[in-house]
Design brief:
The protein is an alpha/beta fold and about 190 residues long. About 40% of the residues lie in helices and about 20% in strands. It has a six-stranded parallel sheet with strand order 2-1-3-4-5-6, with helices on both faces. The longest helix has 16 residues.
Length: about 190
């Protein structure tokens, strides 16, 4: 499978590279574009401030340019938190998308979004301050109306970015469960 993996608001941290290596170890080809031009951040607030400085349109432009050379191959879009929202936007706009793997995040869905049974898997903490229960319920229904085939996995007690061993949110048990399920999902695509 060809996977375009987008980093979180912390930037292209070692955890993203480790995740890409894990996916490569399972036989996938993986690209990890650096949407922040080498900048990484220690706190979510610093990352969000930089994200705001760049602007959503510029981030999406950078993501589209990173994915464009490979989209003909039929990409699985994937991402962590902010990167998941970017992955979702790109997948819903790419008719050749093979799947969508969302880790720790979702995004708004355009009212006219339409896909043909796009396989989508979401992994989030429960509770998650950035992905509230009400938001996730509405998101799930909207994705279904858009034509996506959605699976949602919640991890009680885990922190928001629980798959990143370099952050306080890290939860080894939840992270390993996430990767087991996600790798199984990718095998079905």
């Amino acid at each position: 499978m060809n996977i375009m993996l987008f980093h979180s608001t912390y930037g292209l941290r070692p955890a993203v590279r480790e995740a890409a290596d894990r996916l490569r170890g399972a036989g996938h080809e993986v690209w990890t574009p650096d949407l922040f031009d080498g900048r990484t951040f220690e706190t979510v607030e610093e990352g969000m401030a930089f994200n705001d400085e760049i602007g959503k349109d510029e981030l999406l432009k950078r993501a589209v340019l990173a994915a464009a050379p490979y989209s003909e191959r039929g990409l699985v879009y994937a991402g962590f938190s902010l990167g998941a929202s970017i992955a979702q936007t790109l997948a819903l706009g790419d008719e050749k998308a093979r799947g969508l793997l969302l880790l720790h995040g979702t995004s708004d869905i355009a009212p006219n979004a339409s896909v043909d049974e796009l396989p989508v898997q979401l992994h989030v903490a429960e509770p998650d301050p950035f992905e509230t229960d009400d938001w996730l319920s509405a998101w799930y229904l909207q994705m279904g109306r858009a034509g996506a085939d959605v699976e949602v996995y919640r991890y009680a007690g885990a922190g928001h970015l629980y798959t990143d061993p370099g952050l306080p949110d890290y939860d080894e048990e939840a992270a390993e469960a996430t990767w087991r399920v996600a790798l199984g999902f990718l095998e079905t695509l």
